[in-house]
């Protein structure tokens, strides 16, 4: 079990979970800079020594909080366990719907706004958030496409690039509208996903010729 997996296992219950719950609430309410370790300990109902026993610094606590929140979102991503379970179009459609729902959730939008607001003072938050959220999703979709390529379903010179193109097509204008407090175009979620899948399949899918008599 690596360090992140160990951290995630510990943070699911007991005092570590209390600390993460308190930290998330204060980070959202007051921002990273204005949330002290003393305030986090008080909100969690534990001593500051207990907080430091689990998290060496506020940056480490933010990283753990972000990873937990992003893991919850990531767990809702509909990535097939086996590339052979679903057709390419069906798998991409499922991924598309779960991804769109995740990035437009209030939980995700709140976290993204907070990170963006704090970046000028705490630039280290940028890579922490990226590696825990967009980077993790990109790697997962890229991994699926690598499996699809090995099964002869797609012709992809660069799976990571293609995964980014697909996720970008799904984001479209909806995420920026949501971040700006405008009504996202989610009524057309079906249309957005169908269009992104159709473009991807038209560009990258390998069409297997039907055999005679079938």
TrEMBL record:
Keyword match Iron-sulfur: no
Q: What is this protein called?
A: Transcriptional regulator
Under the heading PANTHER family, the entry gives:
HTH-TYPE TRANSCRIPTIONAL DUAL REGULATOR CECR, HTH-TYPE TRANSCRIPTIONAL REGULATOR RUTR
- Alphabetized Gene3D superfamilies for the sequence: Homeodomain-like (1.10.10.60), Tetracycline Repressor, domain 2 (1.10.357.10)
Positions of the DNA-binding region: 36-55
Classification via Pfam families: TetR_C_7 (PF14246), TetR_N (PF00440)
Q: Which domain of life is it from?
A: Bacteria
Question: What keywords are assigned to this protein?
Answer: DNA-binding
PROSITE patterns linked: HTH_TETR_2
Segments forming domain HTH tetR-type: 13-73
Q: Which organism is it from?
A: Salinisphaera dokdonensis CL-ES53
């Amino acid at each position: 079990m690596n360090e992140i997996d160990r951290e995630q296992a510990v943070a699911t219950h007991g005092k570590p979970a209390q600390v993460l719950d308190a930290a998330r609430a204060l980070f959202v309410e007051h921002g990273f800079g204005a949330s002290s370790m003393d305030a986090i300990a008080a909100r969690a109902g534990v001593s500051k020594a207990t907080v430091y026993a689990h998290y060496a610094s506020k940056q480490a606590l933010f990283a753990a909080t972000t990873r937990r929140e992003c893991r919850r979102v990531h767990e809702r991503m509909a990535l097939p366990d086996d590339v052979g379970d679903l057709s390419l179009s069906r798998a991409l459609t499922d991924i598309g719907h779960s991804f769109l729902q995740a990035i437009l959730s209030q939980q995700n939008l709140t976290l993204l706004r907070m990170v963006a607001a704090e970046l000028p003072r705490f630039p280290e938050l940028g890579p922490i958030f990226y590696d825990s959220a967009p980077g993790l999703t990109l790697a997962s979709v890229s991994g699926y496409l690598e499996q699809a390529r090995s099964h002869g379903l797609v012709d992809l010179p660069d799976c990571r690039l293609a995964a980014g193109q697909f996720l970008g097509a799904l984001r479209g204008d909806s995420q920026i509208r949501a971040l700006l407090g405008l009504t996202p175009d989610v009524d057309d979620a079906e249309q957005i996903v169908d269009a992104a899948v159709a473009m991807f399949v038209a560009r990258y899918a390998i069409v297997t010729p039907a055999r005679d008599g079938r």
